[in-house]
Fold:
Amino acid sequence: LICSDIGSTDVGVSQCGITGITEEECEVMGCCYNVQAPLTFGGTACFTKKPLQAAEYPTCEAVTCTRNIV
Structure:
């Protein structure tokens, strides 16, 4: 899991905690904190982490890619 560069408005990310939460409170909950995110992108300063794309969708090189022909 990683912290989004654009905060809670990113796909797969949601608000974590309440509006006005401190950075310390946010991080204790295992979430990401970026005070600039709401000012730049909207949303909230405290937000959940998102999955790594590679972990969700491995490339064909990482797995065997074959077509199932019936």
Notes: The chain is about 20% helix and 5% strand.
